[in-house]
Amino acid sequence: MDLHTAKVKGGVGPFASPAMNITLLLPFPKALIPSSLLHRPFDVHLKSEKLSTKCQIETERGLEFDTGGTFFRRESATGRDLGVLAAILYKKSKGNLRVLDAMCGCGIRSLRYLVEAKADFVLANDANDEYRSVILHNLSRVARVSDGERKWVITHFDANRILADCYLQREFFDLIDIDSFGSDSMFMRTAFGALRLNGLLYLTSTDGYSSGGGAIRDAAILGYHVSPLFSYYSYHGPVFRVMLRVYRGKLPDNRYYGFISYCHNCGHSQAFSWDQLGQMCCPCSNSRVPSSLVVSGPLWTGPLHDAKYLKEMLLFAEKLGWAGGGMRTDLEKLLNQLIDEADPSLPFGYIKLDEVASRSKVNSPTLRAMMDSIQKLQDRTLLLMQLRRTALWQHAYGLQRSSSKADGSNLNVMSAQ
Question: What biological process terms from GO does the record include (predicted)?
């Protein structure tokens, strides 16, 4: 019998019978042993490891796996690509990589971290123990033990519990991936506790218009500060994913931690610092506070991506054959777009082109016309934030009238960062 398939009440552990001496726990990472098991008797029963009757074979980046009855989205593959590339960079720079996949589902992220990022150890956790056979089947493609060290372990605990146990047992991880439903804010503090200093925290939000809005606040409470390496938005959820690097100490510069206003009357957006909260106004209101002004915050108002980091990710994507070679893959286009968005001179906010077109009584310019217009203006060394929107619109509209209809369909909403 494989001891790793033993099932302990309240979780999965490496036990074969209740009579086993507690010293048998010592060879295993302490983080995998719930502290409650060390202080009270426990009952053990075995659960057979049979493949799911809902077998559904998928292939991603050449890796074949079974999704079983788990929740799985092919559209999320790009987010998994980005996570793997970040893990590869970390392993290259630090020489070691321990990953905690807090909500692993069928285990495809864990498998990719093991195979593609060459992770030294992966803890694959999912609260639903009915997924165990699927996860075990998928991870079994990688040897459990290499050179006497465990490569991966499967557990079935609530994400907050496994994160808290890791912190209490001082078992820290270099990358923690929390691919949750809704907001991941409820996992922030326990995740910070289980993460190694200068480690990576990969967060998800499917509930709201921003990802990890409380990350800076929660980090500050615990004596850390965070910096975004990249932020990714996908329409299919919608899903926001952001990769944060976590540092010890206070945020060195508070200029990117403030409030953002938006005027429903004119569409103007701008940032306000904490000491400007009582002085908010809009250019369209002659220094008065209009009823059309709404304020959100406190939020991160700085760059959403680290351009240097993204360029390194693109380099490794090319080495893996995921980009380059004249193919112009979707991943390559995305990384190049994120690099462009990392320009600190870009303003936050967005322009509703359909509304502007309606007020101007003209058709919306094509996406290509808008991008060409912005690029030409940037080439003239003019900062985008210094341009009057009317001038940008007129320039783009002029390009549209002279351009071919083959440029593409009209764009209704354009987001700037």
Answer: tRNA N2-guanine methylation
Burial of 235 (0-12, 13-18, 19+ CB in 10 A): exposed
DSSP per residue over 291-312, as a string? Answer: TTEEEEEEEE-S-SS-HHHHHH
The set of residues, in sequence order, having a beta carbon less than 8 Å from that of 277 and lying 6+ positions away, is: 259
If you ran DSSP here, which 8-state letter would residue 410 be given?
A: B
Q: What is the pLDDT of residue 264?
A: 86
Q: How far apart are CA 288 and CA 209, in angstroms?
A: 28
For the stretch 293-304, pLDDT in tens is 999 888 888 889
> Which residues does 271 contact at the CB level (< 8 Å), separation at least 6?
258, 259, 260, 261, 301, 348
Alpha-carbon gap, residue 239 to 208, rounded angstroms: 9
Peptide bond into 283 cis (omega under 30): no
The pLDDT tens digits of the residues spanning 84-130 come to 999 999 999 999 999 999 999 999 999 999 999 999 999 999 999 99
Single pTM value for the model: 0.76
Segment 239-260, tens digit of pLDDT: 899 999 999 888 777 788 889 9
| Residue whose C-alpha is closest to residue 224's, from 201, 256, 240 | 201
What percent of the chain has a predicted confidence (pLDDT) above 70? 75
DSSP state letters, 356-402: HHHHHTSPPPBHHHHHHHHHHHHHTT--GGGS-HHHHHHHHHHHHHH
The conformation of residue 211, written as its DSSP 8-state character, comes to S
* Closest to 71 (Cα-Cα) out of 130, 5, 152: 130
Return the domain boundaries, the chain: 3-46, 57-252, 257-299, 350-417
The answer to whether the beta carbons of residues 353 and 396 sit under 8 Å apart is no
Q: Which of 16-20, 91-95, 232-236, 404-408 has the lowest mean pLDDT?
A: 16-20
Kindly state which CATH superfamily the domain 57-252 is placed in.
Answer: Vaccinia Virus protein VP39 (3.40.50.150)
Q: What is the pLDDT at residue 210? A: 52
CA distances from 320 to 80, 84, 150, 332, 396 (A): 14, 11, 26, 12, 38
Half-sphere exposure in the Cβ direction for 342 (13 Å, CA)? 19
